[in-house]
């Protein structure tokens, strides 16, 4: 969601002398995407952002996927995952492909190090909890329902308030932005967009730390986590301006698009990246044609895998899902409402469901550690007697 922002102190013109009170120069850093052709921001540091006292490999970043099995619908009960940790090391990966990884995290402690993703943007959806994300661009406060978008290369750490923060994390190898069809040629959101610029929150304050010492920054890149020991605090920025920075959009600010008959999933689209889209299913009025069927029709994912993360409410087309459930409906086979859900939907006027959908245009694979939370009977739950069906397959 690119529009111009400015925080802190900056010189009147870029690439010119900008001096500290003692007469020495602040260090200018241009941080941009797509070479020098994408969006960018310019940051001004007390110290060179290249001042690293030690660089070494911290750990291999190697996700182990399951072996190829039968093509089937999957259901992961991630609410059963009791593992805890910080917002990065505590991630438990569930699904992934060449374009993104999907994880959950039960965050019960602050990060005692700094982190940056050198491969692509990250999106953190806050299912539960409150806290702050401290970044080189400033601090953002988060609350339930927030989508937190952190651009590639941004140094940050997450500080939860006491109690648990539950996150859905999407790590990409590309960018995350709003759908192009919602914007005009100048980048402004159009009148028919389900949100506008007022709904987006950038950093609230810029705290500058000029202290020297040893500060651990872990960087994810090239299949490894790298350790860079800075000689200064990485949040030494006195000011910045531009179009590249972390931002937040709350799912409650998504204004649903409705119609007389059932509308297809693209009306729920909120973000897009390379080979994937992210959609928001929010409380909304149902279809109002006198003979309309609110439940979705059966449909085939011809060229995309569909993932749903269930946040709360009674999802109108599903049985057996819980808060924190993740379902995967892969391309190649059709999916649709569970038995009885079509009939149950007739005559209903609204829904209070809340869910995040991720559609990928390359096949997803299930991470081995996610198998511990799988509902193995989900594929057969469309049969009248799923237990009997499972014995005959």
Automatic annotation (TrEMBL):
What residues sit in the active site? 262 (proton acceptor)
- GO biological process: one example: tyrosine metabolic process
Q: Which GO terms describe its molecular function?
A: homogentisate 1,2-dioxygenase activity; metal ion binding
Q: Could you tell me the keywords of this UniProt record?
A: Dioxygenase, Iron, Metal-binding, Oxidoreductase
Q: Does the keyword Oxidoreductase apply?
A: yes
User: Which residues does homogentisate bind?
Assistant: 335
Q: Name its co-factor(s).
A: Fe cation
Task: Please indicate which superkingdom the organism of origin belongs to.
Answer: Bacteria
| Keyword Aminoacyl-tRNA synthetase attached | no
Q: What is its EC number?
A: 1.13.11.5
* The Homogentisate 1,2-dioxygenase N-terminal domain, residue ranges: 99-250
Q: Which Gene3D superfamilies match?
A: Jelly Rolls
Q: Where does Fe cation bind?
A: 299, 305, 335
PANTHER family named among the record's database cross-references: HOMOGENTISATE 1,2-DIOXYGENASE (PTHR11056)
The entry's family comment says: Belongs to the homogentisate dioxygenase family.
The name this protein goes by in its record:
Homogentisate 1,2-dioxygenase
Q: Which organism is it from?
A: Paenibacillus thiaminolyticus
For this protein's source organism, the top of the classification is:
Bacteria, Bacillati, Bacillota, Bacilli, Bacillales
């Amino acid at each position: 969601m690119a529009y111009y922002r400015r925080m802190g102190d900056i010189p009147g013109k870029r690439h010119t002398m900008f001096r500290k009170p003692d007469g020495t120069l602040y260090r200018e850093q241009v941080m941009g995407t797509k070479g020098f052709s994408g969006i960018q921001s310019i940051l001004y540091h007390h110290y060179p952002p290249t001042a690293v006292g030690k660089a070494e490999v911290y750990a291999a970043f190697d996700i182990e996927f399951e072996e190829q099995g039968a093509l089937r619908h999957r259901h992961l009960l991630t609410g059963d995952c009791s593992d805890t940790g910080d917002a990065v090391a505590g991630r438990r990966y569930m699904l992934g492909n060449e374009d993104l990884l999907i994880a959950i995290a039960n965050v019960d402690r602050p990060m005692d190090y700094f982190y940056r993703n050198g491969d692509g943007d990250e999106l953190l959806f806050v299912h539960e909890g409150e806290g702050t994300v401290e970044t080189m661009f400033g601090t953002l406060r988060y609350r339930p329902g927030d989508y937190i978008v952190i651009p590639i290369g941004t140094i940050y750490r997450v500080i939860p308030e006491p109690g648990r923060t539950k996150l859905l994390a999407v790590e990409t190898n590309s960018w995350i932005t709003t759908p192009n069809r919602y914007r005009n040629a100048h980048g402004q959101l159009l009148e028919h967009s389900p949100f506008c610029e007022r709904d987006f929150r950038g950093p609230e304050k810029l705290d500058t730390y000029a202290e020297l010492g040893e500060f651990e920054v872990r960087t994810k890149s090239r299949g490894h986590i790298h350790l860079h020991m800075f000689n200064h605090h990485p949040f030494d920025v006195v000011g910045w301006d531009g179009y590249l920075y972390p931002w937040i959009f709350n799912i409650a600010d998504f204004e649903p698009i409705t119609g007389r008959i059932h509308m297809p999933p693209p009306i729920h689209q909120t973000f897009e990246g390379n080979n994937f889209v992210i959609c928001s299913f929010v409380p909304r009025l149902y279809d109002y044609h006198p003979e309309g069927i609110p439940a979705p029709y059966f449909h085939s994912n011809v060229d995309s895998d569909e993932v749903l993360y269930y946040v709360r409410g009674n999802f109108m087309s599903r049985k057996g899902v819980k808060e924190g459930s993740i379902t995967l409906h892969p391309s190649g086979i059709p999916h649709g409402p569970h038995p009885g859900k079509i009939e149950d939907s007739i005559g209903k006027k609204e829904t209070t469901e809340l869910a995040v959908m991720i559609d990928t245009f390359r096949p997803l694979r299930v991470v081995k550690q996610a198998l511990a939370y799988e509902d193995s009977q989900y594929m057969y739950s469309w049969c009248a007697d799923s237990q009997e069906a499972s014995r005959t397959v």
